[in-house]
Task: inverse folding
């Protein structure tokens, strides 16, 4: 499946039913990869998770407005949670898998990694490199 400009060029003539079938054929891992690359900062979250709320507030407080994907509101959210748990090494424990943050399309990790990067000063350069911060 193609993404980005190539997909947009082809989408104009693809029937809606074919787009739905193509989206359904996309695996959870492929969907995570696609969503993670669509914005400078992407947060996979669960709306009732306090750690997810904290990481979103951290970014907003820095002037960064991430793309947030609330997995509990997504019909395929459970599959995405499992794929994210595998990515961050949570051993399939979906509760431990969120929040998951991508910056510049690259996996930063869960809350512990984001906070460690913030504390050690490496978060701001990552955000600048991804184009999420200008100052």
Result:
């Amino acid at each position: 499946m193609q993404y980005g400009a190539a997909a947009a060029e082809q989408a104009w003539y693809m029937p809606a039913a074919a787009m739905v079938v193509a989206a359904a054929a996309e695996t959870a891992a492929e969907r995570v990869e696609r969503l993670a690359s669509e914005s400078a900062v992407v947060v996979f979250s669960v709306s009732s998770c306090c750690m997810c709320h904290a990481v979103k507030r951290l970014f907003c407080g820095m002037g960064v407005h991430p793309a947030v994907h609330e997995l509990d509101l997504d019909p395929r959210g459970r599959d995405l949670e499992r794929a994210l748990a595998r990515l961050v090494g949570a051993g399939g424990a979906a509760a431990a898998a969120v929040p998951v943050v991508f910056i510049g399309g690259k996996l930063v990790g869960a809350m512990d990694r984001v906070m460690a990067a913030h504390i050690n000063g490496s978060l701001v350069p990552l955000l600048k490199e991804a184009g999420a911060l200008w100052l």
User: Anything to note?
Assistant: The CA atoms of residues 41 and 66 lie 5 Å apart.
